[in-house]
Fold this sequence. Notes:
Elements: E1 25-33, H1 56-80, E2 84-88, H2 92-95, H3 97-105, E3 109-112, H4 126-144, E4 150-151, H5 162-168, E5 173-174, E6 184-185, E7 192-193, H6 202-208, H7 213-230, E8 236-242, H8 250-264, E9 269-272, H9 274-285
Parallel strand pairs: 1-2, 1-8, 1-9, 2-3, 4-5, 5-7
Antiparallel strand pairs: 6-7
Helix pairs in contact: 1-8, 7-8
Amino acid sequence: MENELFGYEPITERPPLVWPGGARVAFYLGLNIEHYQVDKPSTSIFGGTAALVPDALNYGWRDYGPRVGIWRLIESLDRHGIPASAIVNSDVFSRYPQIVRAGLDRNWAWVAHGRDNSTFQAGMGREEERAYLAEIVATMEAVTGRLPQGWLGPALTETFQTPALLAELGLGYTLDWTNDDQPYELAVPGMLSVPYSIEMNDVTLFVSKSYTGPEFLQAVRDQLDQLYDDAADSGRVMALCVHPFSVGQPFRHTYLDQALEYVAGHSGVWVTTSDEIAAAYREQRGLGSPPEGGATQ
């Protein structure tokens, strides 16, 4: 079937993109804050027990994130003055209130990320998904005091109607389509795709590819340096996507801290959030604000 959500537009044939202050690269830290159901399989470090109920090995590994890893990560973000784009399951707001308070105190951007990371909406009917998304958005809005602007599906899952349903609710961008170094317009009026990365992602690098800490640090440096060179004529986006249960492990954290220091000290880099990147792109392209919506509609 044809992909009707977006067409082909090579990056070499677009109008130049200029970031605030003349920066070449817009950088954001995608901080995945997730809740996992104890009786469902999910991201695992050891596949041999992933189908067991309970799977103490893998569940405990994931649960290290909200209990310990995220607090180590927050210290680094504070030290280097880097705001988080908190990509958060709505169940986090009731289950981990201390994390939510830390984010509210720091004025994080809040990106909707499903109800939990064990539930995927792929295969949902339209009305079922509409109700599911409305519940997530309403939960987040009630706690943060503002409508989330962005969306990342758990495991980047969508249905064909997800972007349109998100637009109905007033969201303005999705991170699910990891196919570009710049934002671009989707066929759904008012909706953007903003770059996210499965490659520049701690779970991919550490768990799937068995990177060491020094290799991770070098990958971050190489990614930023290459994007900076690419952006001589038109701005680029770098997303560094992390999970506290992975990069928050003690023996890895020092390399994340060094990577953030490198980013924060790099010339020509706008250190920002995914919300601000979407807003800057809209302003420059004359697209206006996202469509008005609300979880109660």
